[in-house]
Amino acid sequence: MTILVTGGAGFIGGNFVLDWISGQQETLVNLDALTYAGNLETLRSLEGNPQHIFIKGDIGDRELLGALLDTHRPRAVINFAAESHVDRSIHGPGDFIQTNVVGTFNLLESVRGYWQSLPDTEKAAFRFLHVSTDEVYGTLATDAPAFTETHAYEPNSPYSASKAASDHLVRAWHHTYGLPVLTTNCSNNYGPYHFPEKLIPLVILNALAGKPLPIYGDGQQIRDWLFVKDHCSAIRRVLEAGTPGETYNVGGWNEKANLDVVKTICALLDEMKPRQDGKPYTEQITFVTDRPGHDRRYAIDARKLERELGWKPAETFESGIRKTVAWYLENSEWTDNVTSGAYRSWLEKHYG
Ligand code: NAD
Ligand code: DAU
């Protein structure tokens, strides 16, 4: 038995691949274009492991996809591959349309051709799981109930609009062609191997480097945070027992304002790696210009996944963020490797 994962050298895909290989015998084919966000350093422990087959390539390359599907005959495809950073989508939306919309379309078409050629029993058992985001639902007022799976799609950034478009394609490939698809819409992840353009790893690394900790606007925007290993366990559960054509919200029940998240990280660093001058890391907090179109609040209602498939997160925010800060302190080699020249020029372009 084999599964095909796309984007498995990125943050969530990489954690998924590592957990999958440590948890079962099944072969995993990992297709990743290795953009700036994809890093084989994350998968270094799998070097020489025959259970992991890495292929560098694009989800939009139908010839490659056709060959991979015919050769490896996976029982499932899990699509993590995407451009994932909201700020980058504001600076340059083109790559987001290309990968998240056109790429997903090409992937769906390749998978449909393969799936239609399968014998009936394999065809019935096959699954295409699309990993999506809570950002497709738009923003919430402070007192509004959390997003359920039936909330209207109201994406506000080029990133979330491109993910919303991909979700619609996945839905249509089920309703029109019968492809057995599953979609997960998850809240903000954090944890090991998180590329340091995103808030939590950026703040940890900037704090340790003595740099400013940039807070957009007033810092009162709210996100629901989920430890990445919990997202991976939710995806495994949906793959195993989800109903084709259904969507499942995944969240951590951890709504936090950005400023509080940053202060929590500062307090953990004060405890685990105090500044040499004895001052608190909060002194480095700097308020900067807000993100254009910045969504004020996300909150996920994950009760469907709990009720129907029995999934719950294992970590609280307090336990997960402690593990995350400790991981970054212990893995400076990984961060040194991923913070290349390209990363430094992004910081220069975005923060000045
Ligand atoms: P990431 O940016 O860390 O990783 C994306 C991976 O996809 C990289 O390895 C990259 O090389 C690869 N990739 C990009 N374009 C590709 C292409 N055209 N063909 C093949 N590979 C390509 O992203 P992430 O944070 O790990 O997110 C993974 C998925 O989960 C995305 O679909 C994202 O929308 C979704 N998601 C992310 C979060 C989050 O908090 N990070 C939350 C909910 C959903
Ligand atoms: O909600 C799920 C989404 O979470 C995923 O779909 C995206 O792929 C993922 O990147 C993430 O999007 P966000 O925009 O919420 O994540 P980011 O880490 O970029 O920002 C988190 C919050 O912190 C957001 O309100 C913006 C703010 N922020 C971010 C950065 C990078 C700052 O205040 N300062 C910063 O420097």
From TrEMBL:
Upper taxonomic lineage: Bacteria, Pseudomonadati, Pseudomonadota, Betaproteobacteria, Neisseriales
Any Pfam family hit: GDP_Man_Dehyd
Domain of life: Bacteria
Molecular function GO terms recorded: dTDP-glucose 4,6-dehydratase activity
NAD(P)-binding domain boundaries: 4-324
Names of the cofactor(s): NAD(+)
EC assignment: 4.2.1.46
Xref: InterPro entries: dTDP_Gluc_deHydtase, NAD(P)-bd_dom, NAD(P)-bd_dom_sf, Sc_DH/Rdtase_CS
Catalytic activity: dTDP-alpha-D-glucose = dTDP-4-dehydro-6-deoxy-alpha-D-glucose + H2O
Single biological process term from Gene Ontology: nucleotide-sugar metabolic process
Family: Belongs to the NAD(P)-dependent epimerase/dehydratase family. dTDP-glucose dehydratase subfamily.
NAD is among the record's keywords: yes
Keyword NAD included in the entry's annotation: yes
Keywords: Lyase, NAD
UniProt source species: Paludibacterium paludis
Protein name per UniProt: dTDP-glucose 4,6-dehydratase
